[in-house]
Amino acid sequence: MTKQATIVKFPVQEEVKLTNKILAFIDGEGFDKVLGKVTKGLFSAILFLGIPYFFYVVVQAWFMG
Questions:
Q1: CA–CA distance from 4 to each of 7, 8, 11, 21 (Å)?
Q2: CA distances from residue 17 to 9, 34, 53 in whole angstroms, order as listed
């Protein structure tokens, strides 16, 4: 029977600082701004790409009978 040792690595100070910055970004005002821009971009893509494609499909279905 062999004995196994478990090595516990505690977070280094730089890792803790990075984690705190990420959590502060997610919890703060910056994440809301990024999420707002992403939402506006997706809405624009749906509006300018999805609606014309929908009309194309409807016209094709109408002419195909």
A1: 10, 13, 22, 36
A2: 16, 22, 47
Q: CA dihedral in degrees (40, 46, 49, 50; nearest 10)?
A: -170
25, 31 contact by CB (below 8 A): yes
pLDDT, tens digit, for every residue of 7-41? Answer: 767 767 777 777 888 888 888 888 899 999 999 99
What pTM, to 2 d.p., does this model score? 0.54
The length of the chain is: 65
Is residue 3 helix, strand or coil? coil
